[in-house]
UniProtKB/TrEMBL annotation:
<dbReference type="Pfam" id="PF13738">
    <property type="entry name" value="Pyr_redox_3"/>
</dbReference>
<protein>
    <submittedName>
        <fullName>Flavoprotein involved in K+ transport</fullName>
    </submittedName>
</protein>
<dbReference type="InterPro" id="IPR024000">
    <property type="entry name" value="CHP04046_FMN-dependent"/>
</dbReference>
<keyword id="KW-0560">Oxidoreductase</keyword>
<dbReference type="InterPro" id="IPR050982">
    <property type="entry name" value="Auxin_biosynth/cation_transpt"/>
</dbReference>
<dbReference type="InterPro" id="IPR036188">
    <property type="entry name" value="FAD/NAD-bd_sf"/>
</dbReference>
Length: 429
């Protein structure tokens, strides 16, 4: 990391968060000669090291890994890096950026008394000030575990997906995976492939095909310019930020995740988990609806690819709609914990944001920042690295560089405007 003067407490820009977003912005600020400091409460790119299970791999192809000045340069652009490869690639990015960063520093509060005053940044290592602040700590802060968890028997091991590492880390017995988004479906598959008895409480997560009509679906969507669509042009507008990610996997070269096929192989599927009464788990009778919804999204994406192929006269292998390979015989609304042999529960229902430390009037009723492409209504305060901050890739390796470059331009423009205003005041005084 770049040398930092320990006596300096004021910076033009403070970046809170040293992940892919914060480091990307540091890269562009260095290009512009803007002094700044990155504050990271753990290690740089910590979340990739700590919140991924052993068999984790990317769900988007390697060619989409495009951080500033640090694109994927391996020999498998259409493959999917595994955990160790991702961390090695990110370690290279850390060295490449050489950001002025402090690790192990917790930010307790960011506030400003008025627009013409610097921001005060209270941390575990004292107070810093900055003319502008960028919150680049992501949107996945607090693991979501429902209060129902408190009523499960003490002998049942519980963990959040962020803590899961491998099947061997769980005690013998069946496992209940709650949630079927990207983490839930992949962890369920990981356990299933290891020969564990798996129960899955499904939700309304969508899914997509890995490959369709001769190419990875991601390649088709890139050709269709989907990844350049700004949130303002998406049919759901900002509502798309609430969507669950489609489940699919890059494991073993990439494939679909089809819960119905797993059910044929012995995985037990249920609807949405709602309650625990005595020794019985209770579920909504909506398994069929959840599976049909996921398949409907799957077929809808493929249909859009069909239209694109037809409109452009592309020679591609034939396509077709997915036909369910399994149907639930009946909806089951309860499951006896003891009879099922469940010894572990893995909660895979996501994270909630926690920006309580940002003391600024820029949040909506749900505690989410209100912004336009990361720029808030409080002058000099920005957000970076959030899902659909601007495009689909804003919270991913594929789009965060574009967002960081844009914010660097906004920061430089504001710094220049402030300097001009101060010079005018001096001339008039």
């Amino acid at each position: 990391m770049a040398h930092i003067d320990p006596h300096t407490t004021h910076y033009s820009v403070a970046i809170v968060g040293g992940g892919q977003a914060g480091l990307s912005l540091s890269y562009y600020l260095q290009q512009r000669g803007i002094d700044h400091l990155v504050l990271e409460k753990n290690q740089l790119v910590h979340s990739w090291r700590s919140q991924r299970w052993d068999s984790f791999c990317l769900v988007t192809p390697n060619w989409q890994c495009n951080l500033p000045g640090w694109s994927y340069a391996g020999d498998d652009p259409h493959g999917f890096m595994v955990k160790e490869e991702i961390n090695a690639w990110l370690e290279g990015f850390v060295v490449h950026v050489d950001a002025p960063a402090l690790e192990g520093v917790v930010v307790h509060k960011v506030a400003r008394s008025s627009d013409n005053k610097p921001f005060s940044i209270q941390t575990s290592q004292g107070t810093f000030t900055a003319d502008q602040v960028v919150v680049a700590s992501g949107g996945y802060h607090k693991p979501i575990v429902p209060r129902l968890a408190e009523r499960l028997p003490a002998h049942v091991t519980q963990m959040h997906s962020a803590e899961y590492r491998n099947p061997q880390s769980l005690p013998e017995g069946a496992v209940l995976v709650v949630g079927c988004g990207q983490s839930g479906s992949q962890i369920a598959e990981d356990l299933h492939l290891a020969g564990r008895k798996v129960f899955v409480a499904t939700g309304d997560a969508p899914r997509c095909a890995r490959f369709y009509r001769g190419k990875d679906v991601v390649d088709w969507l890139a050709d269709m310019d989907y990844y350049n669509m700004p949130v303002t042009q998406h049919p759901l507008r900002e509502g798309v930020r609430d969507n669950t990610n489609h489940y699919v996997t890059g494991r073993d070269g990439g494939r679909d995740i089809d819960l119905r096929r797993f059910a044929l192989e012995g995985m037990e599927l249920y609807g949405l988990l709602t309650d625990l009464q005595g020794n019985e788990l209770r579920f909504q009778p909506n398994l069929q609806a959840n599976l049909d919804h996921a398949d409907g999204i799957y077929n809808g994406i493929n249909a859009s690819i069909d239209k694109y192929i037809a409109a452009h006269g592309i020679d591609a292998p034939p396509g077709g709609a997915y036909t369910p390979v399994w149907q639930p015989a009946a909806e089951r609304s309860s499951l006896d914990l003891a009879a099922s042999g469940i010894s572990s529960v893995v909660w895979c229902i996501g994270f909630s944001p926690d920006f309580a430390w940002v003391d600024a009037p820029v949040f909506n009723g749900r505690g989410e920042p209100v912004h336009v492409r990361g720029v808030t209504q409080q002058a000099g305060l920005y957000f970076l690295g959030l899902p659909w901050l601007h495009t689909w890739g804003s919270g991913r390796f594929s789009g965060v560089a574009r967002d960081a470059q844009y914010l660097a331009e906004q920061i430089a423009a504001r710094a220049g405007a402030v300097d001009c205003a101060e010079e005018s005041e001096l001339l008039l005084s």
